[in-house]
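Supplementary Methods S3. Complex input for the zinc ion-bound model.
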Amino acid sequence: MARSHPITCPFCFTRFAPGGALFRCANPRCPGRAEDAVYADYQGLVTPEIMGRVFPAEPRGGWLRLLRPPISAVCPDCGAETHRRVCPTCHYELLYDAGLTEERMIAVLGGRGTGKSNYIALLVNRLENTIGAHFDAAVRALGDRTRERYERDFYTPLFRQGQVIPPTRTAGVDPATRTPLVFRITFAGGRSANLVLFDTAGEDMQSLDTMSVEARYILYADALIFLLDPLQIPAVRHRLPAAELPPSDPGAEPEYIVGRLRELYEQEFGLRSRDRITKPVAFTLSKIDMLYPLLDPGSGLFHTGEHFGTLNLADVRSIHAEISAYLQAWMGPHFNTLVQMNFANARYFGVSSFGRPPRGVPGQQKVEGLAPVRVEDPILWIFHQFGLIRGRA
Ligand SMILES: Nc1nc2c(ncn2[C@@H]2O[C@H](COP(=O)(O)OP(=O)(O)O)[C@@H](O)[C@H]2O)c(=O)[nH]1
Ligand SMILES: [Mg+2]
Ligand SMILES: [Zn+2]
Ligand SMILES: [Zn+2]
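Predicted complex, serialized as structure tokens:
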């Protein structure tokens, strides 16, 4: 018999035993249908929707329940059986196999303007096409509205219209940004990982407190892809034409952001100053096309990582070493030390979503001919850390 695994809600990140899931009646004619205030509150809906009633499964013997949590239940109002399980905290519908497989959650995050939205667009596309083919993996959109939102807000502007995705609005303005896009990557043999993408407006990074949705998602993800904007490093800015740079933003400087990340873990898990964070963290410099004039012509960042069906470990190592050397040259030894002292399993990566600088004024930029560089490296490294793909020495 399959073991059950703890479930982490992909929306509110509450963690609970599978036996703690609630059920939602799926019968459209059920007399118990009503406004779901809990769901509306978490989703930021102004008027609650009329939805199927939420209820716990009938009690069963304690041991049986622990061993084999119910995956269906009978609605007390209409007697229909339902398989829809929801989170006990926020009533978000769980994936059909939540708790039945070991779910790994990988989250992408970064400060304001680091390039998250455009990176998400390319990462999903690369996974669905090239990477899926090389690693014999299938990618599926899960959860409420993921596919439509990806098509509308990410794929269409960038891939069909050649437009840089405009800045994300804050979660207060656009409640859609509070709902993650969830993709599941399933490898041959059935093992899988979930990629949970919150395209938050980056300024929320600054006001991280342990109660915020972003914070919970950082704390409870099993691995992080953490985007850092090299164009916010003062020494880099001094070496590039001012007209091509985004406005300076001290709150988006890598050192500041990494420090905030550390503080968050201290507050939530009571980490002591000597403790390091052990989950895999891919610190990823975005927009590396802009750095090309500053790099050595032999730099690995000019070409792909050649991860054809296996992770090229030598490449991961040399990119890490190369970026670490550049960061030391640009910021002094402090940043590398900060990362090493706080993260036991961190690597540096460099990506460019577009492969070249976009053109036009901010807010209406265009990109001609997408030529993404190394977009998949961080997630492949994380897959390897989870034992989902093999490495090649
Ligand atoms: N040169 C270059 N600029 C990028 C790239 N990705 C994003 N940008 C720039 O960074 C800005 C912010 O990107 P966005 O994805 O909106 O960042 P977010 O706020 O983290 O979601 C965009 O408007 C682009 O101007 C890239 O790969 N190369
Ligand atoms: Mg964005
Ligand atoms: Zn929840
Ligand atoms: Zn019912």
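The chain has a mean pLDDT of 88. The domain at 105-392 is CATH 3.40.50.300 (Rossmann fold).
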